């Protein structure tokens, strides 16, 4: 419920702070006095968009702050999901800066407008004549029935099940599409895989083959140079090994004279050993080298196969070809596994459908039980509002498809008079009748669900006399379960309120300001008398006002 409202620098309001009770509050005032300004300010707190025209003083920021009691609304989950601090008394603040920028805060935490709008739905319902169009909305019609049917938990369970079902359907559709796609590629993928398998590829073999091909293609040149190495090293008179041996012997003879000569001898010994190893390996390699045309042809062919496959698959290495090979193998295995997966997923989906169907049936049965009770209660209130022969029917029809409402469709039917054909409410009800129907529905809903605070904005237009008194009584009865405001021009309704606030304008120098104040008992009598007889208040109007208040 709305505990208090503070407005600074908004439209005609310079500064306003007002507290509210949890009962039936009346707001009155002349046309243009500022009732729409009050609603506009509340609208900003609830997330409506703002612009610079809202600022009274364009050089100062506008600040609107509302304090709400949230104890009865179970909004802890909303605050948790939006990472906000939950307080039983929550402060919502909206600021409009001279630059035109707007800021919003919930308990001093910055929020965006969408979060404010989501929260606002739970806090205040501003109901004006044009909002009776809600009655034509299927969402709202189901909301009415489900409140009376106590379907909240069933609807929640159904929608969770529907979410799981839709996810399962998407997964099954994806599996079927994957199979169709793989089926089209199956033959070609199999051909590509066989081609790669036939090549018998191994990691690192391309470099080895290219090295071997280079050697096989240059056998004579390699052998010629190895033979020259062996010849130079082993030549009897001037061979490298003979020369090193002579150097080693000479250094050995003088090694005893100096550590330095000993080091020279050791180093030349190491060189001799290393050179001997190289000569031995060159000899071994020279022995192995043979001209092998068949091996050359094989290596050339294998490399050509690798190059062809690389070009075909747009890669540069055998390793990348092996990745493609594994991928193709995986696709072929995947195709074989898909049938089993599809069957399993279909069975899973059938089980989900059965469960969702069961919950949908419970929802439908509860609605069918609630509809006669709901219709009777609405018609009873309409009788009090001067529509003695009104008939209202919630026509529930089954559907095969799952919707967010279950497996039902709904049509709201209405007839105002005896002998009149019942038909769709949008065709059969006038504007005034729609207002009374909506009031009756809100009055019924107040007994079944925690409705937000409601503001009836001149819903009594076109009504007078005894019907106005009944309207006031109905709204007062609603206030036993919720906070109710009525903006009205009718004294009969104004007299029913527990509190009475007046909106008025006044001039200060060359400025016009708007104010809202809580009327005391004597002030309230004067206000209602003025509503009865105009500015020239008669004694009879005063007495009539007192009678209405009593």
From TrEMBL:
Superkingdom of this protein's organism: Bacteria
All copies of domain RecF/RecN/SMC N-terminal, residue ranges: 6-506
Coiled-coil ranges per UniProt: none
Keyword vocabulary terms for this entry: ATP-binding, DNA damage, DNA repair, Nucleotide-binding
Family: Belongs to the RecN family.
Role this protein plays: May be involved in recombinational repair of damaged DNA.
Name of the featured protein: DNA repair protein RecN
Gene name of this polypeptide: recN
């Amino acid at each position: 419920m709305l505990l208090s409202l503070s407005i600074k620098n908004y439209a005609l309001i310079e500064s306003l702070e007002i507290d509210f009770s949890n009962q039936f509050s009346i707001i009155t005032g002349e046309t243009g006095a500022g009732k729409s300004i009050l609603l506009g300010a509340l609208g900003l707190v609830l997330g409506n968009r703002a612009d610079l025209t809202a600022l009274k003083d364009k050089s100062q920021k506008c600040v609107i702050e509302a304090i709400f009691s949230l104890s009865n609304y179970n909004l802890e989950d909303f605050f948790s999901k939006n990472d906000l601090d939950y307080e039983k008394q929550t402060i919502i603040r909206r600021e409009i800066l001279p630059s035109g920028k707007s800021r919003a805060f919930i308990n001093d935490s910055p929020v965006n407008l969408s979060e404010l709008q989501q929260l606002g739905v739970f806090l205040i319902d501003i109901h004006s004549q044009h909002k009776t169009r809600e009655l034509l909305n299927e969402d709202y019609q189901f909301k009415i029935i489900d409140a009376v049917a106590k379907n909240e938990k069933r609807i929640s369970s159904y929608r969770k099940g529907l979410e799981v079902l839709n996810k399962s359907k998407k997964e099954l559709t994806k599996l079927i599409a994957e199979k169709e796609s793989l089926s089209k590629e199956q033959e070609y993928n199999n051909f590509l895989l066989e081609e790669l398998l036939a090549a018998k590829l191994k990691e690192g073999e391309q470099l080895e083959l290219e090295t071997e091909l280079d050697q096989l293609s240059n056998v004579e040149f390699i052998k010629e140079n190895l033979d020259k190495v062996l010849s130079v090293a082993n030549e009897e008179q001037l061979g490298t090994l003979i020369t090193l041996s002579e150097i080693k012997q000479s250094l050995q003879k003088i090694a005893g004279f100096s550590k330095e000569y000993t080091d020279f001898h050791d180093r030349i010994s190491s060189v001799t050993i290393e050179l001997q190893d190289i000569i031995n390996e060159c000899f071994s390699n020279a022995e192995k080298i043979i001209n092998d045309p068949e091996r050359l042809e094989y290596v050339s062919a294998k490399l050509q196969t690798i190059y062809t496959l690389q070009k075909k698959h747009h890669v540069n290495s055998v390793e990348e070809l092996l990745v493609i090979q594994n991928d193709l193998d995986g696709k072929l295995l995947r195709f074989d596994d898909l049938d089993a997966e599809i069957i399993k997923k279909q069975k899973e989906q059938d089980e989900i459908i059965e469960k969702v169907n069961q919950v949908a049936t419970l929802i439908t049965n509860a609605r069918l039980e609630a509809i006669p009770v709901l219709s009777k209660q609405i018609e009873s209130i309409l009788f009090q509002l001067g529509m003695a022969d009104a008939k209202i029917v919630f026509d529930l029809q089954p559907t095969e498809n799952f919707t967010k409402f279950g497996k039902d469709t709904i049509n709201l039917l209405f007839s105002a008079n005896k002998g009149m054909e019942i038909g769709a409410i949008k065709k059969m009800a006038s504007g005034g009748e729609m207002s009374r129907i909506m009031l009756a529905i809100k009055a019924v809903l107040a007994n079944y669900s925690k409705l937000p605070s409601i503001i009836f904005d001149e819903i009594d237009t076109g009504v007078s006399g005894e019907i106005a008194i009944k309207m006031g009584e109905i709204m007062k009865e609603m206030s036993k379960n919720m906070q109710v405001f009525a903006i009205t021009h009718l004294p009969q309704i104004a007299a029913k309120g527990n509190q009475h606030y007046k909106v008025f304008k006044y001039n200060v120098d060359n400025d016009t300001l708007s104010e809202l104040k809580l009327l005391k008992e004597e002030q309230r009598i004067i206000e209602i008398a003025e509503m009865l007889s105009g500015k020239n208040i008669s004694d009879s109007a005063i007495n009539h006002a007192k009678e209405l208040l009593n």
